[in-house]
């Protein structure tokens, strides 16, 4: 009876609350109606009211409604009914900038956006301009509230509105105002809260809009203020400034310049990561470090400056769980997560690996994996079975389970980059490493047992990371780790190893069938492939692994990957490694492709195939062999990532082909056969000889050149001036080299095949001789293939880039000078000679090998063919790009990202003009690939800046490049009428104006033009 009365009372209160909310809503609607007027004869009504009392009435009514509506079920419907009018009124009131009301209005905006962010999406853009205009208010409370409101508006924007809002932010000069306010902070009267809000707002802009980053970074006064504030201010300011640095470091160019400044930024960063700092500061310090060290080159730079202190800070962060009793669990986990992310710098080789081992990384990782290992492990050595038992019990507790993928990733990379002679420094360290390996092997078996039950991303990430750790440990450079993991894995598999293998083979066969092959199943298939490769490394299971249709299954899988049926990168399921907003927000980033490439299934299928081919005694079936070789050759022809190419080359080595044959790049093989422009003879003991090119040997195999071919001074680096070497020395360089009788002629000829063609075919007997010669000539890639060894992770592919030949290394072999046009008077000095016009020293042999026009010219017998110089009718900037492209087969990129965004149209045109020149010249020099590459580059620049179209059209017309002129006209078509009315088109000839007019007509008819 009593409970019934209580329910009735509750219902009565609920009804009363709803009635009150409706009353407040009616008052709000009435207040809004007081400021609504009809604009001229338009039926539409607009909120425009200058009456201060009505403005106050609206703001107070809205504040009362929002205060009462929190958590109420009917709020959404009521608010949605009036939201357009509310925002319109707020925008008007903010624009009026009345000191009596504007502070209240801004606070109401904060309430409105914070409690109704999804509903406000359509209206957020309307608030940006009026809020931006109030940032410079003399009323510091209003300015601070505006920064808070604007920050909230920008933070709640949907991604699809970012481009539109960036234009509004630029037009309102929001960034300039924020910078001005922060710069005025030192010595001023602003409260610290105002500074923090401005810094926080600037962080949001930098995070969302890449074009802002370089602009802010170049403001040296602002950066100095930030640095001073970080040092002198309290905790919250220090955190805000660190976040700002992290956002700046999302720009690759800024990050490089930060590191270029050296110890200042790194000392600050490492000190913020120290155990003496509050957790919030340490977390931001770790995030800044992650952004600064996001690729191998930056890792090398950072660790060369502060490897010891950096690793000490990382280890300190990873130990926080053991030392952090009494502190907030969430903060500790956040710090652990950031420290583990930073510890992934182990994926790159370097001195920092030694520091990790010295700081006890093995014990730290084990403490994060097994909660009470120290209590369970006695002082006496543990038997293998005891280790397995303790490890299994520890893993079953799911202690810090979210960190396990990091643990396996870190430990795997440490194993990859170990020295060959690595051994634990003490018995206790040996136990830690053994336990880590045992835990990885147990997780490996668990991954197989789960099989098709792996469904969640977390499960996949854990299974993939532990299995992969076992795989890379089995292929570690360290003899100790490689042998230990095989021993422990064999022990773990002793009871049910064959049962697991049988299940694994079934799952792979099932997953590779046409009905089940798809992107949804690929993460599981990758885990199964990794497990299969590990089994292949254990002698006792190799017969069972190679038995059946394994080779056929993997070849089919590779062919499907090559035909783009599926393509799943590791990034999509190794979330611990890649699931980071950093990768989504970076800019100015052009890093090399990951070693394993973009297709995890292709990579591990190739690795599995390499293992099966290695352990198969014979591949007799001609159809399988033919299909296998054809498939592997397609990988070499079409895949650029080093890892898959190395694995493909490893497979081919079992069929007598060593190297990287590629239908798209035949190397310099024909020149070796035709003996064109050879300048050195290698004389065998039997009197026979072979003619070669010194420049090819200097770049590809310098061991075959006698030491006198390299003058002593040529060994110096950037400061070396070749003009200091008397020119008369060059003709005296040897033209013949007599080889020792111990040099096998056939082996040397095959070595030259590899040097010129990029690959070599050799039978078993000849391969043994060639292996000896390759080792003595330091041809490590060839030696690896002849040994049929899978290369160490990260081993680069031998490059076909001859750019080094344009420097001191190749000058003494240069036999032609390419002179550019003197477009304007410019100071000129050559590092190699005294010629005063812009020019480059090049090599006829390389030029003619890659350019049909120059080949015909040099062989024509005309005067130019004997000349020591050729005038190239392009500017110096264009000549550099052209020659570098010929030598490297890659067109240099124009500035991009923040650098490009912060250039005006004149600067951008200066950068673009050389590509137009090379595009024109490529047609006459019969360089179709070059022309296509230049055209693509020009189009990408026009996409980013339509204002370039007019100037590009004029350039194109000057070179009679009518296809390019028509494309430029298409870009101008959407603004044809504006250009015509403004008189801009008067700069063009009538023919060009007609092109733009025609493009505009086509666009209006829906059949052409670039309207985006």
UniProtKB/TrEMBL annotation:
Family annotation (InterPro entries): ARM-like, ARM-type_fold, ARM_At1g04390, At1g04390-like, BTB/POZ_dom, SKP1/BTB/POZ_sf
Cross-referenced Pfam families: ARM_6, BTB
Protein name: BTB domain-containing protein
Pathway: Protein modification; protein ubiquitination
Species this protein is from: Gossypium raimondii (Peruvian cotton)
Superkingdom to which the source organism belongs: Eukaryota
A biological process term (GO) from this entry: protein ubiquitination
Domain BTB: 678-764, 814-895
SMART domains linked: BTB
Disordered, as annotated region: 1-21
